[in-house]
Amino acid sequence: MCSTLFHVPARLAIGPWTLPVFGWGLLLAVWAVAGGLAVARAARQQGLAAALVSLGPSLAIVGAVVLWVAPALVEDRGVPVRGYGVMLLAAAVAGTWLAVRRGRVVGFDTDTILGLGLWIFVAGIIGARLFFVIEYHDEFFRPGEPLAASLARAAFFPNGGLVVFGALPTAALAAWWYARRHGLPLLRLADAIAPALLVGLAIGRVGCFLNGCCYGGPTDLPWGVSFPAGSPPAAAFPAAGGASVAVHPAQLYAAIDAAVLALVAIAFTPLARREGAVFALVLTLHPVARILLEIIRVDEQPALGTPLSISQLVSLVLLGLAAALWWWVLRGPPARPRFDGHHPPTSH
Questions:
Q1: From residue 252, how far is each of 130, 182, 208, 209, 223 by CA, in Å?
Q2: Does 339 fall in a domain?
Q3: Once rounded to an integer, what is the mean pLDDT over residues 319-326?
Q4: What is the pLDDT of residue 55?
Q5: Which domain holds residue 63?
Q6: What is d(CA 226, CA 218) in angstroms, rounded to the nearest whole number?
Q7: Residue 335 contacts by C-beta under 8 Å, 6 or more apart in sequence?
Q8: Which pTM does this prediction carry?
Q9: Is residue 281 assigned to a domain?
Q10: N vs C: which end of the chain shows fewer Cβ within 10 Å?
Q11: H helix runs in 141-221, sequence order
Q12: Does residue 31 sit in the same domain as residue 126?
């Protein structure tokens, strides 16, 4: 577990000047230059209006974080850089890279995938955090506390507190809206990004391990992990000295599971005979794996009067949706997705 990796100083000395990093500072200047270059590049291919629509909202959110959110996080040593947040960013970068590579060979240009990735990432974070806040609402909305303080705590997620299944409806809605707005074939797009989502999930689960959340139950297996004092596992299963007893590293099990499923989806791609089949396979296998992993995890209690956790219940719903998607995909004539680089262009 390594919750805080390091601190970024709030001010930097450059020659005779001491300049702020956050707020109206150096990071905002970097954001302005990088954002301007990204918009200019997209504008050359799509036109300025389309570039602003695809990149503008996400750039605005990043700018707001730099300008207002980051200064509020400053501690004595600066702004803490959390292991969870770093792995979340690495997950977004790796997933986007794979989605771009797969998207190119079926006719989606880089800017299209980048724009989609930004929308999915932001929408997914919102949904995942909202699900977590609803599930553990008593931790955020305390009696007698000002509403503004409760909302601020609910909005702050760099320390953890995201539920993967909460991201699915908001991310799916964002992808559907983006595909419809740009006239993109949704099933082919879903096939292109499905393994990328699993790669992002695998890396994100490593962030859960660094944060100490999403832990498993006690174990005497040689790879059991003892988390330090102050961590969620130590609070649930304390041992002498304040650390936790050895518990299952369920986060790493989930990371390995997502990585293996990503490889399966990539290997299945050339075998698929219909567009949408790759995504349907992922939508089938991941809930099954999650139901099994939840047997090892102990951080979620049974929900809705059943012996199943909320994630297991959602997994059952997803399996129903997967069955419906398979029916939809298989009812049409074969239209094999081409990931060999010879598919006709889709977007420009």
A1: 24, 37, 9, 7, 11
A2: no
A3: 96
A4: 80
A5: 23-73
A6: 9
A7: 274, 275
A8: 0.80
A9: yes
A10: C
A11: 147-155, 164-182, 186-211
A12: no
**Nearest alpha carbon to residue 175 among 185, 165, 166:** 185
Q: What's the whole-number mean pLDDT along residues 19-30?
A: 89
Residues 246 and 103 in one domain: yes
**pLDDT score at 284:** 97
**CB-based burial, 52-69: b 16+ in 10 Å, e otherwise:** ebbbeebbebbeeebbeb
**132 and 56 housed in the same domain:** no
Residue 243 and residue 126 share a domain: yes
pLDDT, one tens digit per residue, over 81-96 is 888 888 988 998 999 9
Q: Are residues 267 and 136 in the same domain?
A: yes
Q: Given this model, what pLDDT does residue 118 score?
A: 82
Rg (CA), the chain: 22
Same domain, 81 and 216: yes
DSSP lists the bridge partners of residue 302 as 309
The pLDDT of residue 214 is above 80:
yes
Quote the number of domains for the chain. Answer: 2
Q: What is the pLDDT of residues 142-185, one digit of tens each?
A: 777 777 767 766 776 655 577 777 888 898 999 999 999 889 99
Report how many helices (DSSP H) and strands (DSSP E) the chain contains, helices first. 12, 4
- Tokens at 345, concatenated: 């262009």
Q: Are residues 88 and 69 in the same domain?
A: no
Residue 43 lies in a domain: yes
DSSP-assigned letter for residue 345: P
Tokens representing 243? 């650390």
DSSP annotation of 158 reads T
Q: Please check whether residue 53 lies inside any domain of the structure.
A: yes
Whether 314 and 210 share a structural domain = yes
What lies within 8 Å, CB to CB, of 10 at 6+ separation is: 20, 21, 22, 71, 74, 78, 79
